[in-house]
Design a protein that fits this description.
This protein folds into 4 domains: 99 residues, Fumarate Reductase Iron-sulfur Protein, Chain B, domain 2 (Orthogonal Bundle); 39 residues, no CATH class; 117 residues, 3-Layer(aba) Sandwich (Rossmann fold); 113 residues, 3-Layer(aba) Sandwich (Rossmann fold). The chain is α/β, with parallel strands linked by helices. Helix content is 49%, strand content 8%. The strands form 3 sheets. A 4-stranded parallel beta sheet has the order 2-1-3-4. A 4-stranded parallel beta sheet has the order 7-6-8-9, with helices on both faces. Strands 5-10 form a two-stranded antiparallel sheet. Helix 23 links the parallel strand 8 and strand 9. The termini are far apart. The protein contains 23 helices and 10 strands.
Length: 416
């Protein structure tokens, strides 16, 4: 120890031949060597807090991934501990060494997925999720059928099928000097049909035209986090091909109103950096992708609370907004400035348990995390819970005693 500074030894690696000279191997080596085993990440890891098992902590998972890239055959046990990771990335915010744990976890899942056979049941469930969720029309059709037959469905599935909310009309198309693209998402139009039109109406009120690109559906996060990066990159390339002509024609940004999708789009440059045909375009996409707060906070002087919005709210900051996009506190500041009363929320950095497909694949842990999150959100007796991600919204709304809405539904443009 020198003065008050603690010294920890950097991790040493000896990569196996199968990965040593690959882009994935070089990245894994770089990330692993940043880890100093300090353990600061344990306090902010949701699964470690629940289970108390070192193997279900970022530090433990890093060691397990290290074993795999050094040539040790992965086991079903390693697969289980990686499956239990939410990829919330709270550990990245806490880490004093800048370890990019999320990228390492994705790499570890991919390697283990290739080498450890899953049960037939697990394979069918994951294949089903990868088939249905990224396809907007297919998901919407199945959700409609689920609502029709909801009374006879098993209770676990019935809880996840929320009543249909009314749709909202899109603003009348009219040419504006400023134009942006909007990623409408894969499940969001069916789950929350008013959210995308609401976003477009807000931007229209600010003199910004929203260009719809229906062919851009899934951002790629579902395949990415389930250990299928090649399929994820297919989604990325299709989205880039869809957006590129509009960007060349002058669209200034790609607005992504689901923070989970926004975090993934911000990774396009990294995921495609070795692709000679898409690397430059992906870099441009990453630069132009914006969360709505980054655009709307520039126009705070003409925004106002929506006429029907409760004023006393609890804001649930999604992990992707905090730890991936690093936009902590900015939505809260905007809402407070507009006159909303934000109640205190304890443990605001801890995941709600939604985490993409996690609530479907790890329901026991997801339910425990949701119960803790709702207890913290409700302590201040809010009239409404606001959030910034479709997954968190639907996960919390399943059992919340107060409405759960996207924060964009609480504001409007002041035309007075």
């Amino acid at each position: 120890m020198r003065g008050c500074e603690l010294e920890y030894a950097a991790m040493q690696t000896q990569l196996a031949d199968f990965i040593k000279d690959t882009p994935e191997g070089r990245e894994a080596d770089q990330i692993l060597r940043k880890c100093t085993h300090c353990g600061f990440c344990l306090a902010t890891c949701p699964t470690y807090r629940l289970l108390g098992d070192e193997l279900d902590s970022p530090r433990g998972r890093i060691y397990q991934i290290k074993q795999v890239v050094e040539g040790e055959p992965p086991s079903a046990s390693i697969q289980l501990h990686l499956d239990r990771c939410l990829t919330c990335r709270a550990c990245e915010t806490t880490c004093p060494s800048g370890v990019q744990y999320g990228r390492l976890a994705d790499l570890g899942r991919t390697l283990v997925e290739q080498q450890v056979a899953r049960s037939i049941g697990q394979r069918l469930v994951q294949k089903g999720l990868r088939l249905v969720l990224p396809r907007r029309r297919l998901f919407g059709t199945l959700l409609t059928l689920g609502r029709a037959f909801r009374p006879i469905l098993p209770m676990t599935l019935r809880k996840k099928i929320l009543p249909q909310r009314p749709a909202l009309a899109w603003p009348t198309a009219r040419a504006r000097p400023r134009k942006v693209l909007l990623l409408e998402g894969c499940v969001q139009p069916a789950l929350e049909p008013s959210l995308n039109p609401r976003t477009a109406r807000l931007l229209d009120g600010l003199g910004i035209e929203v260009i719809r690109t229906p062919k851009a559906e899934c951002c790629g996060a579902i395949d990415q986090h389930l250990g299928h990066p090649h399929a994820a990159r297919g989604h990325m390339r299709r989205n880039i091909d869809t957006w590129w002509p509009h960007l060349e024609a002058g669209a200034e940004a790609i607005v992504v109103n689901a923070s989970g999708c926004g975090a993934q789009v911000k990774e396009y440059a990294h995921q495609l950096h070795t692709d000679p045909h898409y690397a430059a375009k992906a870099k441009r996409i990453t630069e132009l992708a914006l969360d709505p707060i980054e655009l709307l906070e520039r126009h705070a002087d003409v925004l106002a609370p929506a006429s029907d919005a409760p004023r006393r709210i609890a804001f649930q900051a999604p992990c992707t907004l905090q730890h991936a996009l690093r936009l902590t506190g900015r939505v809260e500041r905007l809402l407070t400035g507009l006159g909303f009363e934000l109640v205190p929320v304890a443990d605001g950095t801890i995941c709600c348990g939604s985490a993409g497909t996690y609530s479907l694949l790890q329901p026991r842990l997801a339910t425990q995390l949701r119960a803790q999150k709702l207890q913290n959100l409700m302590t201040g007796q809010p009239q409404l819970i606001a959030t910034a991600n479709i997954g968190c919204l639907t996960h919390l709304a399943e059992v919340s005693s107060v409405p759960v809405r996207h924060w964009l539904e609480l504001i409007d443009v002041n035309n007075a």
